[in-house]
Write a structure and sequence with these properties.
The complex is a heterodimer of chains A (about 100) and B (about 290). Chain A is an alpha+beta fold and about 100 residues long. In chain A, about 35% of the residues lie in helices and about 25% in strands. The model of chain A has no long low-confidence stretch (mean pLDDT about 95). In chain B, the strands form 2 sheets. In chain B, strands 1-2-3-4-5-6-7-8 form an 8-stranded parallel barrel, surrounded by 6 helices. In chain B, helix 2 links the parallel strand 2 and strand 3. The chains are: A alpha+beta (about 100), B alpha/beta (about 290). Chains A and B meet through helix 2 and helix 3 of A and helix 1, helix 2 and helix 3 of B.
Chain lengths: ~100, ~290
Amino acid sequence: MKIVKEAIAGTLESSDVMIRIIPAEEEKITINSSVKKLFGNEIRNTVKNVLSAFDVANVHVIVEDKGALDFILKARLKTALFRATDEKPQWNKVIQQ
Amino acid sequence: MKLRRSMLFVPGSNAGMLSNSFIYNPDSIMFDLEDSVTIKEKDSARLLVSMALQNPLYQKLEKIVRINPLDSEFGIDDLNAVVRAGTDVVRMPKTDTPQDVVDMEKIIENIEREIGRAIGTTKLLAAIESPLGVTNANKIAAASKRLIGIALGAEDYVRNLKTERSPEGVELLFARCSILQAARASGIMAFDTVFSDANDDEGFIREATHIKQLGFDGKSLINPRQIMLIHHIFAPTKQEYTHALKVIEAAQAAQEAGSGVVSLNGKMVDAPVIERAKLVLEKVKLSEIRE
């Protein structure tokens, strides 16, 4: 997936996460979370896995986490990615059965 | 027998609610992609709900998703996402005609075929919210084998009637009865509209008692506090339970004696009474008994 513009998804409300996507020269993941010590690695792994699944490189992902569960993080990240691209979702890829 | 007394609405764009609504254990959880989600967040809600549908937290609950109209820019994508994600039921947005049901079914069937999901396993829930829908209730109820029931959406309906909602609900009587009749004639369920004042327990109990007496199977809810209230109202009473036991015992005794006539306390008990008694016993297995 080609990232062509900046995009944001999510909110700063409790149990949610705000994701900002910025086109960049290389992959960079910035995580801000009150539970970074406990879950920072897991958040990073989830982000990396989603980027890999959608073949996304050269992007700066900024994660403002407010205690979101993993499936919330994945959903917000996928939304941000699709807002940052001109490509339409291929549903068989986006939703794994 | 699947009870659907409580159908809890959860706005699909609210991450907090999606994270914990399973705790309330309603009979069905209804993720909303339509009216409670702003246009800018339709894409986000669709993915949030899809991920929730697949999450183990919601595995044991019946999952319903209210999608956007097919003629909006969101409806088809909603279906593609939630049918793939494994929703149990798709709640249609406003259902005015049987053709609306047929059109929805066609698209769902195509998606099921494409993804290898057993054809027919995505059920439908029609939502009647207009005088035209009420007029067509019978045809709507018969329009698809996927239909589990019909729900009433009162706010739009009452506006179309050019009146307002009242505590007594007389303005809804015709619609409620029509939907109920249509549902029963087709052997499916009927669900009442939301009670929007989450702080008015008395008003909610009054309305829920009324629709239970009319014959409704359950109600759409907007607040988890309403779940316990409605489960209690729909629970068989001790008296009903005791009576049901006696009816079943009498029916069994008559069968053993080879008699075609069942009698209890000198009165004849016929098939509908026995069926109703069986239903009460089924309900007791699944819910509480109230005083």
